[in-house]
């Protein structure tokens, strides 16, 4: 990288460190979403993808609504509906108009599989000079260019002439987010050409630690994955791996991080170590408890708030529990005409919640569940969520609620496929036992 390129890179990274405080205005206008409640989620960071709900409101009878989001920097957001995540970028002090896919088209796609595995759909946004469209246009040209030149870059181990060509693609937008996004996409060419070690000093050291830049996170994850694999599998790194295992204090862990990153930027070296620990956990290269102990040391002693928060997010991700937490809230009218909330799940006995697809024949499942309830002398209640339509074969003693396939209740209760059952304990919490384990315990 020549001196001029380094100067430009340093300049936009300095600019990138300054956050713009304000709010983003997100406009939705689509009649196919009339009277539908929509949620907007953000990622706490793009490494762990820890979610946080930042808005929820219902579109009017014309499918119109406006979200005003208090965001401090450009950020990747998404709207979940059916099994899809409708993703888009928002910027502070900017108004954007989302063009959502026609809802029935989404429903038809969902009905082919009826699975709630998340699938991403990038949204088109007006105006066309939005950050969202700039990244979409850049990625289109970048991917075509990379496909055409990948072998040349990989075999000749020379990326500079190709990086210069990519400068032509960078005219789509002028924001610091886009500039840094494009820079890390360019850096990927250096990665392809085999220049791994040089990347740390050229593109990462001495810069802002970016948690919300997709190109930055993707490239650093690739580098961290290689380091984690080398550390645990390459005999050349046996001594360094032993030092890593023996690091019990923050100072000793810092020494490991500085030798791993090999830059003068101690905050970045620690940042890289966090990525390596995350990669090692994902690939099961490190003993889970050992890696979490290292991360806990960072959360307690690191002077970098970014690193403390990122380490804590990984710890929480690995300790995340659905079981034992309060049953997600709802407020719905049952088929008996009465309105109920999740408070009905707090009862003198446990409750089995059953989710059924009303378009399927559920008679056998309902009959079996009723026989089990009678066999065990009504030791548990049953609540049914019938998707799209009420089920006629449901006993009158059961509470039944009708919800659409896109209902957030389905996501809140972690449904995968139909039919789906979940056990709620007497305190209204997701039971530690599965519903099958509970029924077996009644047999004993």
Could you please describe the fold and organization of this structure?
By secondary structure, this protein is an alpha/beta fold. The chain folds into 3 domains: 19-126, Immunoglobulin-like; 162-319, no CATH class; 331-443, 3-Layer(aba) Sandwich (Glutaredoxin), CATH 3.40.30.10. 45% of the residues lie in helices and 19% in strands. The chain contains 15 helices and 15 strands. A 5-stranded mixed sheet has the order 3-2-5-6-8. It has a 4-stranded mixed sheet with strand order 4-1-7-9, with no helix packed on it. A hairpin with a 5-residue loop joins β10 and β11. α7 (214-233) crosses α10. The longest helix has 26 residues, at 131-156. Mean pLDDT is 90; it is low at 1-20.
Q: Report the principal-axis shape.
A: globular
The portion of residues assigned to helices is 40-55%
Q: What is the number of helical segments per DSSP (H or I, 4+ residues)?
A: 15
Poorly predicted regions are 1-20
Please give the alpha-carbon distance between the first and last residues. Answer: 71 Å
Q: How many separate domains? A: 3
The whole-number mean of residue pLDDT values reads 90
User: In terms of structural class, how would the helical and strand content be classed?
Assistant: alpha/beta
List the secondary-structure elements in sequence, H or E: HEEEEEEEHEEHHHHHHHHHHEEEHEEHEH
**Biggest β-sheet description:** 5 strands, mixed
Gyration radius, rounded = 26 Å
Strand order of the largest sheet: 3-2-5-6-8
State the total count of DSSP E strands.
15
Classify the beta-strand content into a percent band: 15-25%
């Amino acid at each position: 990288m020549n001196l001029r390129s380094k100067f430009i890179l340093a300049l936009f990274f300095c600019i990138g460190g300054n956050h713009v405080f304000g709010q983003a205005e997100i406009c939705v206008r689509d009649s196919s979403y009339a009277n539908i409640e929509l949620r907007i989620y953000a990622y706490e960071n793009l490494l762990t993808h820890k979610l946080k709900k930042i808005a929820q409101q219902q579109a009017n009878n014309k499918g119109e609504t406006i979200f005003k989001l208090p965001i401090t920097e450009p950020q990747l957001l998404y709207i979940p509906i059916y099994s899809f995540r409708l993703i888009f970028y928002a910027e502070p002090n900017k108004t954007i108009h989302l063009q959502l896919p026609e809802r029935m088209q989404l429903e038809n796609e969902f009905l082919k599989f009826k699975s709630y595995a998340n699938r991403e759909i990038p949204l088109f946004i007006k105006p066309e000079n939005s950050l969202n469209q700039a990244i979409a246009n850049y990625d289109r040209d970048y991917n075509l260019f990379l496909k055409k030149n990948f072998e040349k870059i990989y075999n000749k181990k020379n990326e500079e002439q190709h990086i210069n060509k990519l400068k032509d693609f960078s005219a789509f937008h002028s924001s610091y987010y886009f500039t840094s996004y494009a820079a890390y996409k360019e850096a990927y060419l250096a990665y392809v050409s085999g220049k791994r070690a040089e990347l740390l000093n050229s593109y990462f050291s001495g810069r802002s630690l970016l948690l919300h830049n997709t190109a930055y996170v993707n490239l650093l994850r690739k580098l961290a994955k290689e380091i984690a694999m080398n550390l645990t599998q390459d005999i050349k790194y046996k001594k360094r791996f032993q030092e890593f295992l023996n690091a019990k204090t923050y100072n000793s862990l810092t020494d490991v991080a500085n030798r791993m990153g090999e830059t003068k930027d101690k905050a970045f070296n620690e940042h890289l170590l966090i990525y390596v620990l995350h990669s090692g956990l994902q690939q099961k290269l490190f003993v889970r408890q050992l890696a979490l102990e290292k991360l806990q040391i960072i959360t307690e002693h690191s002077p970098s708030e970014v690193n403390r928060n990122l380490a804590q997010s990984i710890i929480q991700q690995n300790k995340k529990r659905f079981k034992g937490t309060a049953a997600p809230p709802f407020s719905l009218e049952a088929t008996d005409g009465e309105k109920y909330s999740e408070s009905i799940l707090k009862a003198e006995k446990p409750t089995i919640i059953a989710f059924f697809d009303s378009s399927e024949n559920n008679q056998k499942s309902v009959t079996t569940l009723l026989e089990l309830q009678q066999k065990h002398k009504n030791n548990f209640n049953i609540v049914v969520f019938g998707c799209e339509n009420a089920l006629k074969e449901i006993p009158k003693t059961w509470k039944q609620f009708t919800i659409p396939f896109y209902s957030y209740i389905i996501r809140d209760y972690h449904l995968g496929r139909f039919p789906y059952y979940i056990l709620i304990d007497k305190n209204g919490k997701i039971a530690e036992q599965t519903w099958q384990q509970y029924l077996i315990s009644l047999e004993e």
